[in-house]
Amino acid sequence: MFQPYRFADIEVVEDAAALRLEVREFLDEWKYMWTPWERGLGWNRHDRKFSEALGAKGWIGMCWPKKYGGTERSMLERHVVIEELLAVGAPVGAHWVSDRQSGPLILKAGTETQRQKYLPEIIRGEACFCIGLSEPDAGSDLASVRTRADKVDGGWLINGRKIWTTNAHLSEYIIALLRTEGTAADRHKGLSQFVFSMNLPGITIRKIKDLTGLAHFNEVTFDDVFIDDDALIGTLGGGWAQVTAELAFERSGPDRYMTSFPLLEELVEHVNKTGSDRMIDRQIGAEFAKMAVLRQMSVSIAGMLQEGLLPNQEAAVVKDLGTDAEQRLPEVVRSILGQNSPLDKSTSLTEINAAITQTAPTFSLRGGTREIIRGIMAKGLGLR
Ligand SMILES: Cc1cc2nc3c(=O)[nH]c(=O)nc-3n(C[C@H](O)[C@H](O)[C@H](O)COP(=O)(O)OP(=O)(O)OC[C@H]3O[C@@H](n4cnc5c(N)ncnc54)[C@H](O)[C@@H]3O)c2cc1C
Questions:
Q1: How remote is the CA of residue 11 from the centroid of ligand 1, in Å?
Q2: Side-chain-facing half-sphere of 171: CA atoms under 13 Å
Q3: For 185-194, 250-259, 350-359, which range has the lowest pLDDT when averaged over its residues?
Q4: Which has more confidence, 52 or 137?
Q5: What whole-number distance in Å separates Cα of residue 144 and Cα of residue 171?
Q6: Which phi and psi (to 5°) does residue 223 adopt?
Q7: What share of the chain is helix, strand, coil (3-state, %, to 5)?
Q8: Rounded Cα distance, 90 and 50, in Å
Q9: Regarding the domain with residue range 131-238, which homologous superfamily does it belong to in the CATH classification?
Q10: How far is CA 279 from CA 246, 266, 285, 336, in A?
């Protein structure tokens, strides 16, 4: 059935302006410490001290109930904080998965014991979570997950392998999608989600380097890893529905269109110093225009999430268009600078550009590839 997208006209609430200023003042104390290269990689960079400082301000898990340490602020206020962090390339890697996905999942589907155990730690910026979905033979085709959790006395025994697990080597916890029944041929049936420590016996973590030469993601092997019964999140066999419900949180936020924003800002500073022309003005103007539209769409989704809706279709549109904009920016910079070398690090602009050029190919893979996202949109439009 044809379902037109719904992007309600929502504006970030008035009192968020004061919050924005407060976040900017906080960031002024930190941002001089980061090199342009580090700012270019901020979305993934793990800095525990920074996350703890952010936690102390009440800006992690900020929409969650006060009884777990949250401040019960709105999704729109959270949006403001995330925008400000990404705009300056702040190192959000130690808390962004837990703040965006793991915490909301535990809040929604977890037991009261799980909430009390994990949420306060996340809110203080002390708990880094990783996501155990992808496997060597289950990436886009996530339903063919093979890593198993087999029932034993008092718990479960895990065997198998996950891959591309971001920051697994730095994480305290993982939330993994595991097969608790049947085989990969059973697809969506028999998958369950579990939360457990990354320090358990039988877990081996092997780092994988990317183009930057750094190792952010990993291969994680589980050999007879024992976890207690209370590691199960939500319903046994209900893992697929739970994972897909998380997607609106993963795909719609500013982190899906602002990864390259520090580069755009640096480009404007550069052009202000070196002089512009009509062609340059037009190119930069076009990028800002895209950013403004994406922002409005993303704010609208934050408003829908606030209302308890699950705007997965709209989130897919933001991810698709946002990824395109993020990936295109290094090309725009190169065309304006009139140079071919993306790896030149002689100025702040070229240094950020080097970092973003080397990571941009991943933007359309993480959180679901471009083709998969477009498949979801096609389904939503009734074309499939
Ligand atoms: C920076 C980064 C961080 C990541 N972090 C995590 C993480 O923390 N945890 C985690 O679990 N995973 C993570 N991933 C993995 C990511 O989710 C997968 O890479 C992604 O889902 C694609 O899976 P794959 O690599 O197996 O590619 P494949 O699924 O093998 O796809 C290869 C190509 O085929 C295309 N393709 C596949 N199926 C179809 C189809 N049905 N129709 C059309 N085209 C298709 C894809 O679009 C892609 O271009 C991360 C990836 C990146 C790049």
A1: 33
A2: 33
A3: 250-259
A4: 52
A5: 25
A6: -120, 105
A7: 50, 15, 35
A8: 9
A9: Butyryl-CoA Dehydrogenase, subunit A, domain 2 (2.40.110.10)
A10: 41, 18, 10, 9
Q: Which class would CATH give 241-380?
A: mainly alpha
Contact 44, 165 (CB under 8 A): no
Tell me how long the chain is: 384
Atom of ligand 1 nearest to the CA of 365: 53
- Ranges of beta strands (E only) in the chain are 129-132, 148-152, 155-163, 173-179, 191-197, 203-208, 217-228, 232-233
Question: What tokens were used for 330?
Answer: 């290094």
- Domain with residues 16-128, CATH architecture: Orthogonal Bundle (1.10)
**In angstroms, rounded to a whole number, what is the distance separating the alpha carbons of residues 87 and 346?**
22
pLDDT tens digit string along 199-223? 999 999 999 999 999 999 999 999 9
What distance in Å separates the CA atoms of residue 272 and residue 149, rounded to the nearest whole number? 57
**Closest C-alpha to ligand 1, atom 25:** 139
pLDDT at 234: 96
Q: How many CB atoms lie within 10 A of CB 157?
A: 16
Cα–Cα distance for residue pair 6/9, rounded to 1 Å:
9
Average pLDDT over residues 336-342: 71
pLDDT tens string 116-127: 999 999 999 999
Tokens 């550009």, residue located:
353
Domain range annotation of the chain: 16-128, 131-238, 241-380
Task: Say which range, 260-264, 265-269, 337-341, 367-371, has the weakest mean pLDDT.
Answer: 337-341
193 Cβ closer than 6 Å to some ligand 1 atom: no
Query: Which of ligand 1's atoms lies nearest the C-alpha of 367?
Result: 17
Q: What angle do CA 163, 166, 170 make, to 5 degrees?
A: 115
Q: Is the CB of 139 under 6 A from ligand 1?
A: yes
Out of 44, 101, 134, mutate this one to test ligand 1's pocket (max ligand atoms within 8 Å of CB): namely: 134
Atom of ligand 1 nearest to the CA of 361: 53
**Mean pLDDT over residues 74-83, rounded?**
91
